[in-house]
Amino acid sequence: xxxxxxxxxxxxxxxxxxxxxxxxxxxxxxxxxxxxxxxxxxxxxxxxxxxxxxxxxxxxxxxxxxxxxxxxxxxxxxxxxxxxxxxxxxxxxxxxxxxxxxxxxxxxxxxxxxxxxxxxxxxxxxxxxxxxxxxxxxxxxxxxxxxxxxxxxxxxxxxxxxx
Length: 163
Prior knowledge:
The protein is an alpha/beta fold. The strands form 2 sheets. The chain has a 5-stranded mixed sheet with strand order 4-2-3-5-8, covered by helices on one side. A 3-stranded antiparallel sheet has the order 1-7-6. The chain contains 5 helices and 8 strands; from the N terminus they run αβαββαβαβββαβ. The model is unreliable at about 1-5 (pLDDT under 50).
């Protein structure tokens, strides 16, 4: 693990840091030698429970160019039929190529806030049970630790019971 973020800060991380600094939010960043491709790997890296890991999932609707960012607890899965009913449109998980085009971030690096574009955010209510949660910070090898209430404020997301 390498916590030195001063050497060649990735552009995606710079955007996230700018949002955090602008809102004066407390946070902790951790950089790792290898990326976490799955929530259980992220939980192992930061030594937290699986539920405290935020999965930032991108869904595309069939009606317009707007996308949906769903922030899900690492222990939960998203039911496509439920999400489609909730938004009132048939949605599908975005392909890795679409995730990059829509958000400007690669799969595994999509942050839970600070993403540009036309989208809405849903936050899994189970994330609100933790003192802190861990999420991608705009780069596959960097994670951010943040309070769920701050996550809600920064993402402007709506908290809903997903499971």
